[in-house]
TrEMBL record:
CDD domains: STKc_MAPKAPK
Record flagged with keyword Phosphoprotein: yes
Chain spans, region Disordered: 76-95, 406-454
Record's protein name: non-specific serine/threonine protein kinase
Amino-acid positions noted as binding ATP in the UniProt annotation, renumbered to this chain: 164
Protein source organism: Acrobeloides nanus
Species classification: Eukaryota, Metazoa, Ecdysozoa, Nematoda, Chromadorea
Amino acid sequence: MSNNTNMMFELDDILEISTPETASSGMSMISNKSNPFFAGMVYSKPLEIPKLDDATEGPQTPTTYQKNLCINATSEVDPHLSDDDDDEPDTSEEQKKLCLCATSIPMETQEAGLIQKKAAVNFPSHTHQITDDYTVSHEIIGVGESGKVMACYSKRDETKYALKVLRDSPKARREVELHYLASNHENIVKIIDIYENTFDGLKCLLLVCEFLEGGDLLTRFENAGSVPYTEKQIGEIISQIGNAVEYLHDMNIAHRDIKLENILCSSIDPETCVYKLGDFGFAKRPERNHLMESPCCTPFYVAPEVLGREKYDKSCDMWSLGVAIYILLCGYPPFYSMKGLAFSPGMKTRITTGLYAFPSPEWDVVSESTKDEIRHLLKTDPATRTTIHELMRSSLVTGEESIAIRRGSPYSNSDSDSAVEFNMDSGESTPENDTPRSWSRSITPEDDVPELPSKAGPAIINFKKLEALMLKTGGGSVRQFSKPSAMKPPRLHSIQEEVGRALDMMRLGNEDCFIKSPKISENPLLQRRLSLKTSSPESFKN
Ligand SMILES: Nc1ncnc2c1ncn2[C@@H]1O[C@H](COP(=O)(O)OP(=O)(O)OP(=O)(O)O)[C@@H](O)[C@H]1O
C-alpha cells in the first residue's frame, strides 16, 4: 500500500459526518476551493489488476467467482431455512455444498478445530493512487452517515463516477466486499474500481461507482412535492429493487439498510429510469465460524436460533420495503415521532406492535391488495413476514389482480392467530378474517402509549386491549389519529433519521457484542465506582 503523506488529500471534506441540513441539500458544488491534490494529475500507467467492470459483464446471475465466494456462507445455513420453506431440499446437493465448504477449509485448520471468526474479505483493489486514474472533484453528489460522496472523472475518457471514501476498517471491508459481490446486478449500483490508499497515515478504501444522475429516490420524491406515487409507479420501482433484493437474498446477503435514500435513479425521466440499490454499509451474510468450530458436520448441530438470525436479517429488508412502499404511496411514514423526535418510546412501541394506520384521504384510493401487501411486509413477527419471493409474485409487482392466498395469512383466510382490526365507525374491534379495513385511528400523542410487551405480536393490535392497558397504566386514551397531513419536503427529509433509527431496531441479530474488560473501560461511571472502591474503608471493598 502506498503512503501518500505529502499529498494534500482533504480527507475531512469527504469523511466528515453529515448533518441533516447538508444531507438534505442533495447535489451541490464546492466551487470556491481548489485542491492541488485532486487537480490535473496525469494518467501514468495501466492498471495493475483487471478492471472490476470487466468482470461484471454477462448475465444477471451470480458469477462463478461470486458463487464461490458465497458458497461458504450458504453452506453453513440450514437448507430448511431457505425462503422456499416448502421446497423439499435436495439432500445430495446440500451435502455436496457442505462438503465443498468443508474441503475448502485447510486441513490443519480442520484438524485443529480452529475457529475463524471472520470470513476472509475478498475484493480486488488497486494500491496505486486513485489520482493516477481519476480526477477527483469537489462536487458533492450526496451526503450520508459515513461521509460525502464526491464526483470523480476518469482520466481515460472523462466519464463521471461517484466516489465514496471509507476509513479502512473491518466494517468498511465488509461493505466493500458485499457490494462487490453483488455489483453485477442491473439493479445494484455498479462498482467500477476499488482503491486502497493511505492519506496522512490514514488507510482508506476508495470506492468508485457508476454515477446515477437521477439521484436518490427520497430527494427525487421530495423535489416533486412528495406527491404520492400511483400503485403502478410503485410496482415498477419495487419490481426493480425487489429484483436486486431477491438476488441478494438468494446469495444469502441481507442489505439491512433499504430506504429511499439508498435507492438510486439512473435518470430523471421516470419512463426510462432504472432503479438501483446502493450503500452496503449494513449488509451482512452469515459468517463461517459455526462451520469452522467443528469440521464438516457442525451445521447439523447449530441451534435454530443461531441460524434463524440470518432469516431475521432478510426479513428486516422486507420490513424496510414495506416502509418505503408506504411512504411513496402517501408521502409520510407509517411510524414517526409526532413530537419531531428522531425516536421515542411511543414510536418504538408502535413499531414493535405494528401499530400504524391507513388514513384518509391518501389511502382511500389505494387498493386493498396493496394495503394487504403492506400489512404482510410490516408484520411484527419476522418469521411470518412476506419473503422477497412472495413479494415478487404479488399483484403490486406483477400488476395482476391479487389472489391473496398465503400460508397463515391473517388477511386472506381464517387459520391465523387472533389479530383484530380497529373499526373506525363503531370503535369496535372486528374479527380479522372480515374484509380488512384501513385504520383511521391511532394513538396520540405517542408518548402516551405505554410500553407493550416487546415480543413479536400480531401485525394489527387490539385497540380495546390497548385502551384497557392504557387506562390501567394511567396512560392516555385512543384518540383521533393525527397524521402529518402536509408532509412538506423538508419534513420528509427530516424523517430520514427516524426511519434510520427504526431500521436500526429491526436489525435483529445485530453486530457482534463486544464486552470490554473493566480494566480497559473508560466508562466514567465505572471509573467513579472503582475510585470509590479504592478510597473507601476496607470493609466496603469486599
Ligand atoms: N453512485 C451514486 N450516484 C449518484 N448519487 C449517489 C451515488 N452513491 C451515493 N449517492 C448519493 O449519496 C448519498 C449517500 O450515499 P451512501 O448512502 O452510499 O452513503 P452513506 O454514508 O453510506 O449513507 P447512509 O447515511 O445511508 O449510511 C445517497 O443517498 C445518494 O444521494
